[in-house]
Design a protein that fits this description.
Strand order of the largest sheet: 7-8-6-5-4-3-2-1-9-10-11
CATH class of the largest domain: Alpha Beta
Distance between the termini: 54 Å
Strand content: 5-15%
Low-confidence stretches: 1-25
CATH topology of the largest domain: TIM Barrel
Amino acid sequence: MVTSGVKKPILSRRNELICYYSIANNGNVYKQIISILKLMEEAERTVWKNENGEYKDLNEKRKKSGESRHLSTPELMDILKNVRLRHYLTPKCNLECFFCSNEGLGYNTKNNLPARVDLVTKLSDIVIENTPIRGIDFGGGEPLLHPDFMKKEYVITDYVKSHPEIKFAIHTNGVLLTPSHIEKIAPSFSRIGVSVNSVNFKSWNKITNFTGKHGEKEQRQKFNQLKDNLEYLAEKSVGDKVFMKAVIIKGVNDSDEEIYDFLETSHKHGFHPKFLQFEPQFDYQRNMVVSREDFLNTLERVGCKIPEGTPRKHDEMDYCPTITFNYGKTNAKTGLHSIIGCGETGACVACTTYICIYIKPTENGEGLYIKPCSVLDTRFDLTHAIKNDDKKQVVELIRLSREYLLLAPGLGSTSWNKEDRC
């Protein structure tokens, strides 16, 4: 019905399924096809392909654009059609993940205060009304530790409901994603990312408790709660929205058995599996990276199908950060493998045109700023412009943050220098 070995855009595969339905003329088959289409399309939104369904090198446009370091308003708006606004609601987290970058901030910043909800929603309104951005994410830290969720006030969830034209996403480690939160979040959010990392407790504990700060009993309770939450999320029949994520670390959760168990769990629940390449933050971590080529080989060994034409190697100049693969008995459910690649030529240059606009709360929680580059401390403060409802200044600060990325400021970074800020 759906084959993975051909270069086809999503529209072509949609037509195949419609033709199949016309032949079958069966209501149950129709429902199955609609479900498969939802699964494919939500994942495909993450992947950059040309009109023929071939992977795009995100660095290609910038290579051809010359040495310009300024963006006209039409150029800026063209870029903003393809990026998302990403709010970090709180730096606090209930886990200590080995791979955690804390988005380039020192680990001591986890004690900073959470973002003010009124500033988050006001900035979002300004962006929605004055730019073509149509995707907004909420993350952390662990976003469900924000008082808005902890106190079950749900101002953010109500805000999401008030903007059905916007694709909202939330990114959580899943431990606090309890049924009461799921009931509020699942109907209105377009995407729910759950960082599971391993479905085997030993590996999960090694990843999420790397300093040994949390006792095994406490960790097992968290792990069991996570599994229960995934089960409940699956019962809500929103699998096309859910991305079950894992950062792959060599020698920890990269074995065939680990990957197979992870895929089987996501398949059982009807979720997209999303694997991310480990992002080294210090030189000693570089031998913990599993290359894209090696990982794709692992996927094939455990039964996944890799579409023909998928880039097997991650060249620092030809930058394709996210690719798809098919898994499950129908080979129609779509999984993702993503690479960030901070410091590499292609990633650094391509950030201007595809990376999210990262919004952070100030240390005291009373302001917001753009942090354009994970490996550098540069910030563009938005607080004054938001509080004064200065829409032009907000857009101008977004422009400046994108122009800053045109300089490829993090190019060649070999360490995030976070040890000095702990």
